[in-house]
Amino acid sequence: MRESELIEWIRSQSDFDPAAVPVGPGDDMAVLVCGRQRVLVTTDQVLDGVHFVLAEHGPRAVGWKAMARCLSDVAAMAAECVAAVATVALPRGFARADAEELYRGMRAVGEPAGCPLVGGDVGSWPGPLSVSMTALARPGGIEPVLRSGARVGDVVFVTGRLGGAWRTGRHLAFTPRIEAARALATATDLHAMIDLSDGLSTDLAHVCRASGVGAEVIAEAVPIHPDAGRAEDPLAAALGDGEDYELLFTVSPEGAGRLLSCEPGGVPLTRIGRIVQGDQLTLLRANGRREPLRPTGWEHRT
Q: Is the pLDDT reported for residue 302 higher than 50?
């Protein structure tokens, strides 16, 4: 079973009052109406042997990644952090000093982002370390940016450089692009946005599916991280490795012009393509050849 198939089934079973839940499953965060306020909610988990290797990376790095992954969803909606809670399943015999380091890692990334850890649950079991985080956020004066707003003619941008994050441990030490996302949303009208957790090709496909559009990506424009240089095909690594936690977003051509000299929060921007009619993703090679851009990123399978 594919992760995406289960998620689609869960979404098909959902039935919400749109006045109370204006954004439900299928985006980076759900949006709930509580009284006169809107609250954004997201949850994420990290598992030993899948998202990290405890014996190699250590508990502090695990705590950092657990919190940072969750806050990357906050960035994808251009939202403002409020708080987080953590549910931790510790392996039996896990040392107290290591448990404290785990929580220090969470706080080290959460507190600078204005996201204090306010609660959660701790249990012990015979399995590997598992950490589940839930983050709460608010719009903070900026309309939440969804995956479903991309329009034909939009320009596609990414922040930072991509590929090779797992090879070098960068996936354990990234900083969520919250500041950059809010600066971008202030500078121009972002039509759609997503964080690059599963890989550029897969996450762009998520945006296109949600928006009912296609996309063209210019191969030589994709910003490749030096870490991807260790791969046999650096471009393929940038398109499919995932775990970059950068942002992909679309804006109008006019909005793109306003961003040409912009580095929000010191983060470089790269124009990599455009949104087109239809539902196909295409990779444009330097020699003019066009080929299908197939989603090659990460997907859980059972």
A: no
**Using CA of residue 276, residue 282, residue 284, residue 289, what is the dihedral sign?**
negative
Distance, in Å, from the CA atom of 170 to the CA atom of 177, rounded to the nearest integer, reads: 14
CATH of 3-138, one of 3.40.50.1970, 3.40.50.300, 3.30.1330.10, 3.10.20.70: 3.30.1330.10
Report the distance separating Cα 214 and Cα 192, nearest Å: 13
Mean pLDDT of the chain: 94
Tokens representing 77 are 């909606």
Answer yes or no: is pLDDT of 266 > 70. Answer: yes
Q: What is the dihedral of CA 104, 106, 108, 111, to 10 degrees?
A: -120
Give CA–CA dist 239/208, Å, rounded: 16
Task: Specify the DSSP element, H or E, that contains 186.
Answer: helix 178-187
* For residues 177-196, average pLDDT: 97
DSSP, residue by residue, 59-99: HHHHHHHHHHHHHHHHHHTT-EEEEEEEEEEEETT--HHHH
Per residue in 211-233, pLDDT tens?
A: 999 999 999 999 999 999 888 99
